[in-house]
Structure formats: structure tokens, C-alpha cells
Amino acid sequence: METKTAKLLDGKALGLKIHEQLSTKIAQLQTDVGRPPGLAVLMVGDNPASAAYVRNKERACSKVGIASFNRHFPAETSFDELQEVIQNLNSDERVDGILVQLPLPPHLDSVALLHQIAPDKDVDGLHPLNLGKLLRGESGLRSCTPAGVMRLLEEYSISLSGKQAVVLGRSILVGKPMSMMLLEANATVTVAHSRTQNLQDITKNADILVAAVGIPELITAQMVKKGAVVVDVGINRITDEDGKSRLIGDVRFDEVATVADFLTPVPGGIGPMTVAMLLENTVSSYEQRGNRE
Ligand SMILES: Nc1nc(=O)c2c([nH]1)NC[C@@H]1CN(c3ccc(C(=O)N[C@@H](CCC(=O)O)C(=O)O)cc3)C=[N+]21
Ligand SMILES: [Mg+2]
């Protein structure tokens, strides 16, 4: 029997292509602006999932010519201390982007902290002003992971207009902005989450299924419509039987690949697209700030 296999949506390849375009752009702008673009990443405490992201971001920044201003704070750092750091970065002319790595330790009010970031440096698109612009369909800094999903679908000419899109997960970082972007592209959007009943009936209807729940291999072949486009946003670090640590997504890749027409791998899918969109947001903020001076 012949089993079909989904076409891979290669986020790693597209991510590298975007890095090259950004390198060229930065090289051209740098003479006019008189400095490289700058990105500040704040990490509080030790979160292993966050550490991989920070590493990849640093590597990508240095490759394309973005200056990194990364700060790592102990888990017990106070709100006031972080607030002061953010205010200093807000007024630092060398810094175009500020990202506070989430989740923060529980004693810190992350919403209040995100309010402190200057909206024109908010490369994660989490400030209420940028979220409001997204809701209204205005251009502005947008959350990197969902922006990366949209860019990857575009690259493969996947049409969204009139299609049934199902987003699994309703986080402010991924699920909510994702559903807004799909709606903007004229998809019919359903958002499912941990309280959703009869999940399979809903996912089975999806022409486009975006899984962003952080539950390893939740999505089985049975839950996927034949010919669907499946986007796996999950980046779960697990330890396998040999004691080795590896990344797996929210989708059971091997079996879903026999049902779906298009599928993102983990790693090499949305992770590298998130990094590419972060660099792009930083450069776009740099361009705008450079023009103002
Ligand atoms: N304010 C904030 N914004 C975020 O966007 C954010 C965050 N906090 N906290 C943590 C999560 C996680 N995240 C990742 C992005 C890319 C990779 C990535 O590049 N993954 C590679 C491989 C990584 C590896 O090999 O370890 C891949 O999937 O191919 C991983 C994780 C962004 N996040
Ligand atoms: Mg949820």
C-alpha cells in the first residue's frame, strides 16, 4: 500500500532566507543611521525552554548584524528593579527592540511589566497599544510566532480566504494574535482551548489547523481532516527512554503526515520563523527610529 506524506513547510529554510534579506538591508541602512540595530532580551530566572530561544536569537542577531543587549537576572529579582531596567532601555538610543522572556517567575506581574515597554520598541507585540492595533487591523509591531506562521503559509501560497481555520490555544503570545491574523486573511476562525468539548469534531473540520497548546503530541491523525494544512507551534522539551533531551511538537508528526497535505516539522518549523520575525520587527523599529533622528 502506498502511504502519502505531507509536504514540509520548511521554516528553517525560509528563516535563513529572511536572515539574508535582513543582512543586506542592515548593511545599507547602517551608514545612514550611524549605528547597528539593537535588541535587548531580558531573561529572569532559569527556564530551559527559554534558554534555547535566547541562544538562537543571539546567534541570529550576530549573523545579520544586530547588536545584542541581553541581560540575565536571578529569579528573585524585584519588579521595581526590572521596571528600572526597562525604563533605561526605553531611553537608550542604541536599543530598538526590547523583549521580556516569558513566563516570568510567579512573584512578578508580567502584564504590568509589559506595560512599561515603550510601544515603538515592543518587538514582541505585547503592549496593549500594539495588541489594539492588531485587533483593528492596523500595521504595527506584531507577535513574532503568529506573524511567522502567516509568513510561512504565504511562502507556500496557501490560501486562507473562506477556509476553516482552527487555532488550538488562546494565549496572548500565540493563540489570540494568531486568530486575529487568520481573521484578517479572511479565514473563518475557531479558537479551541482546554475547556473545549468534543475537540476532535472541531479539529476534524479544519482546513488549517494551528496547534499552540504545549501538550506533546496531542494531535493525532484521527483529529485531522484529509488534505489539511497543519501548523505545529508546540516546542516541548522531553527526555526520551535513553535519557536524551529532544524537542517534540503538539502534533504526532509521523501519523499526521499521512493525512495532512502540508505540515511543519519540530524543530525546523515555526521556531526559526519566530526568530526571523523577531529580527524583522527589530529592523523595522530601527528603520522607523533611524528616520526620526
Ligand atoms: N516574550 C516571549 N516571546 C517569545 O516568543 C517566547 C517567549 N517569551 N518565551 C519562550 C517562547 C519559546 N520561543 C521559542 C522560539 C524559537 C525557538 C527555536 O528557535 N526553536 C528551534 C530549535 C531550538 C533548539 O534546537 O533547541 C526550532 O524549533 O527549530 C524556540 C522557542 C519563543 N518564546
Ligand atoms: Mg489554553
UniProtKB/TrEMBL annotation:
HAMAP family: THF_DHG_CYH. It catalyses: (6R)-5,10-methenyltetrahydrofolate + H2O = (6R)-10-formyltetrahydrofolate + H(+); (6R)-5,10-methylene-5,6,7,8-tetrahydrofolate + NADP(+) = (6R)-5,10-methenyltetrahydrofolate + NADPH. Transmembrane segments: none annotated. Residues 9-124 form the Tetrahydrofolate dehydrogenase/cyclohydrolase catalytic domain. NADP(+) binds at residues 169-171, 235. This is Bifunctional protein FolD. Pfam families: THF_DHG_CYH, THF_DHG_CYH_C. Residues 143-288 form the Tetrahydrofolate dehydrogenase/cyclohydrolase NAD(P)-binding domain. Keywords: Amino-acid biosynthesis, Histidine biosynthesis, Hydrolase, Methionine biosynthesis, Multifunctional enzyme, NADP, One-carbon metabolism, Oxidoreductase, Purine biosynthesis. PROSITE patterns: THF_DHG_CYH_2. Pathway: One-carbon metabolism; tetrahydrofolate interconversion.
